[in-house]
Amino acid sequence: MNKQSNYLKLLLILLPLPALAYDEQASLEQYPTKDIVVYFKQAQQKGLTGIAQKSKSVYARLAAPGEIIKTIIKGVGTEVISSPAEEGDWVVENICPATGNEQYLVEKAKFHQYYHDPVTVSSKPNYLRFIPTGKMMNYFIVPETESAFTFINSWGKKQLLRAGDIVIQPVSQPQSFYHVPKQSFFCTYNILVTAHKSSNNFASN
Predict the structure, then answer these.
(1) Contact at 8 Å (CB) between 55 and 132?
(2) What's the gap between Cα 90 and its chain centre?
């Protein structure tokens, strides 16, 4: 009985260790970081960028102040962990079963720039349905030959870019960059000008 009791105690101690040892943001430190401004400019100079609009509707709700949102992509894992929400921020949920309908936090000011007035829905309690304003976005597809790397997005968060993922730059905000996983991009954006794919990793920064 004593042996069993000791075993159970040891098991309870060890079980949380993987969760404690795994920190999504800390795990990004194993990847090289690139200057996304330089990286994207090189892509533009080589004619590898295209233009797209986010036009597919989304669900959204007001975030609770202090709420932290994990953006989790089905089959991939955690993409980013938000800063604590402030009053008036929104939790947006893409309507994209291929990605698991991932959620992310959008600041109050940015949200009202990118989405029209809401439409009520009865099928998803506490959420409203919003249609994007359809702002023009430059986009670039990370080459398949590119090793994974990180960059600092417009919210000051480090994000991981993998081969095939998408870098977005709003046309009206050329210093703003963020990452959209490839499954989510093709599920939620309409392509107006197709980006050409690079056959090699063209940037060394």
Answers:
(1) yes
(2) 15
The span from the CA of 71 to the CA of 118, in Å, is 22
> 3-24, pLDDT tens digit by residue?
444 433 333 333 333 333 334 5
What is the total count of domains within the chain?
Answer: 2
Question: CA–CA separation, 57 vs 132, rounded Å?
Answer: 6
| pTM summary value | 0.74
Which of 133, 156, 179 is a domain's end point? 133
Tokens representing 92?
Answer: 């947006």
Residue that the structure tokens 């400019």 belong to: 41
Inside any domain, residue 1: no
> Beta strand 178-180 with 166-170: parallel, antiparallel or unpaired?
antiparallel
SS3 84: coil
